[in-house]
Amino acid sequence: MQRQTIGSLAVMLGPAVAVIGVFIFVPMLLTIWLSFQNWSTQTGFETAQFIGLKNFFDIFSNTSIGRDFKGALVNTAIYTALSVIIILPLSVGLGLLVHQKHVKGGVFLRTVLFSTYMVPMIAVALVFSKLYSPTEGPLNQILGWFGIGPQTWLSSPNTALFSIVILNVWQQIGYFTVLVVAGLTQIPVSLYEAAEIDGARADQKFRTITLPLLANTMLFASVIAIINAVQVFEPVALITQGGPVNSTNVLTYHIRRVGIERAQGGLGSAMAVTLMLSLIVAIVALFAFFGRKGDRA
Predict the structure, then answer these.
(1) 3-state SS class at 37
(2) pTM summary value
(3) Which of 4, 14, 22, 151 counts the most CB atoms within 10 A of its CB?
(4) 41 exposure class (CB count in 10 Å sphere: 0-12, 13-18, 19+)
(5) Per-residue pLDDT reduced to its tens digit, 57-73
């Protein structure tokens, strides 16, 4: 009987485990293996030569390889932090706005907000490259109506990365607003009614009911926002190509440069493994932070 049960489980889980193994674990293990090799992407795997941790020492050294990698790592961290800091509070605000039952058109507003997430990134990048144009861009023209001088947007190292962050926020905000609305619908209305009977103000209900009960949703949204931000590639590749002066050279784009354009597969794999480990550390820290807040509550 037990043998039959094991056999049934193997038959049911086997295809799924095989697919996960082929498309997820094999590429991950191959990347980790290549990170310890001296290997060119223009040759076969049989030419790879084991060099231990040399690739990892190189990317954190003071050579041009190390400086470029650390610059890309800092750019990715800034881009991720700004994206999460802007997207999460904004999505909560918009979620509360469209979730109000006495406000007409809430469903329409949710649809409009979510539609930005369905627009292909290549189209978003092309539109924003025109919006950011320093001479004929509509954004500078609108600022001119209020007496504000033209901004450099993508053409200056000081503003280029933040301009890409704004593009990302515009494209992602609808998705995260829908997540927040889904979380708000799970909060029992009776809690708000009891708070109103006790004379609680709107801000008190928000701090004592909405935010604590929205914690799990915000944790999930934070994880997805971080992963999406770390994986940014299309707007950089399509608009700035890492410039000006490497100010938008994020890690995914830099790994492509090293691994594909310069054919340094081992070095690119070491960078990819470092990025993966950094992402794991960030996610674990996030879970620990929310777990500690949950224990206090």
Answers:
(1) strand
(2) 0.90
(3) 151
(4) middle
(5) 999 999 999 999 999 99
CB 164 within 8 A of CB 235: yes
CATH of the domain at 90: 1.10.3720.10
Say if 123 falls within a structural domain: yes
| Residue-wise pLDDT tens digits, 255-289 | 999 999 999 999 999 999 999 999 999 999 988 88
- What is residue 214's three-state secondary structure? coil
For 40, the 3-state DSSP assignment is strand
Which residues 6+ apart lie within 8 Å of 252 measured at CB? 76, 230, 231, 232, 233, 236, 275
What does the block give as tokens for 95? Answer: 């979620």
Describe the crossing of helices 265-296 and 64-99 by its angle, rounded to 10 degrees. 40
Of 101, 112, 108, nearest to 185 (Cα)? 101
Q: Between β-strands 49-50 and 37-38, what pairing exists: parallel, antiparallel or unpaired?
A: antiparallel
Specify if 56 maps to a domain: no
Query: Total structural domains in the chain?
Result: 1
